[in-house]
Design a protein that fits this description.
Helices cover about 30% and strands about 20% of the residues. It is of the alpha+beta class. The longest helix has 16 residues. The radius of gyration is 21 Å and the shape is flat.
């Protein structure tokens, strides 16, 4: 049976700077855009927009700087108040480069604990949403109660893929469907068993949504993704459904505890490999 084509519809919404009613705003914005939600749709919502709805906006001038933040700021050449916010918000800080700290926050590797100073008045910053999985689930229930439709929800964010230029979409939280599709035990085109593949369905949908949502002044914090093929269900989801311990992450583990101090003789013939560990 042929699959229906995947469709993505951008939805503009009012610019917000303080706490507001997110479900009402979504209902009104979808109606104004002429894109009413349908059963089976996945609604992508900017995590920043969702965070602002919770009032997760801070004034940098009001931040009290600790000695630890001053030390971090000096080491990584960053605003001490931003360093203080990162200390307060991050679940773990790995290190950094000038201006940025690499952190683990709500199951995602992100610069500066996801704290964002774009698309908000100067001198302020937007934090990650509070309890993002609960927020996504509550939003799904609110839309079902108000509109009578069953939809999936993704709170979208953008992140930097290791070793690559440019940002890409990543799902900060999901509600209404399994964010991971497990392919292990199935077979490929040649009958070989799949051993490790697990598809990040929520992240893939997020990438599609962000193609129309934008990152700049588009004022499009919402997108409806239709015909994704996901099976909607009332599930209790959390970080543990998508994230792995960073000690099992090939990027982090290979560059920290699993880093090669010396290369095997065979690898030394490869100049690029040898240079990589100097």
């Amino acid at each position: 049976m042929a699959r229906l084509p995947l469709m993505v519809f951008p939805i503009e919404a009012p610019v917000q700077q303080a706490a507001f009613d997110l479900p009402t705003t979504i209902v009104e914005a979808a109606a104004a855009a002429g894109q009413p939600l349908q059963n089976g749709d996945v609604l992508a919502v900017s995590s920043k927009y969702a965070a602002i709805s919770q009032g997760r906006v801070v004034n940098l001038d009001a931040i009290t700087i600790t000695p630890a933040a001053l030390e971090l700021a000096e080491c990584y050449q960053m605003n001490p108040r931003m360093a203080q916010l990162v200390i307060q918000e991050a679940d773990h800080i790995f290190g950094g480069i000038p201006g940025f700290l690499l952190t683990y926050k709500d199951g995602i590797l992100s610069p500066n604990a996801g704290i964002d100073r774009s698309n908000i008045p100067s001198g302020r910053a937007v934090l990650f949403p509070q309890q993002p999985y609960r927020l996504a689930a509550d939003l799904r229930r609110a839309l079902r109660d108000r509109l009578g439709v069953d939809v999936g929800i993704i709170l979208t964010d953008s992140w930097l893929m290791p070793g690559r230029l440019g940002t890409s979409g990543v799902a900060l939280a999901t509600a209404g469907f399994k964010p991971i599709q497990d392919e292990r035990g199935k077979h490929d085109l040649f009958g070989n068993p799949m051993l490790v593949t697990q598809r990040g369905i929520a992240d893939s949908i997020c990438v599609c949504a962000q193609m129309v949502m934008g990152e700049r002044d588009e004022a499009t914090p919402l997108a409806v993704v239709r015909n994704t093929g996901v099976e909607l269900a009332d599930l209790e989801l959390g970080v543990e459904d998508v994230a792995i311990d960073w000690r099992m992450c090939i990027y982090i583990q290979s560059l920290t505890e699993g880093r090669l101090e010396t290369l095997p003789d065979g690898a030394r013939a490869n100049g690029h490999a040898a240079e990589a560990v100097r």
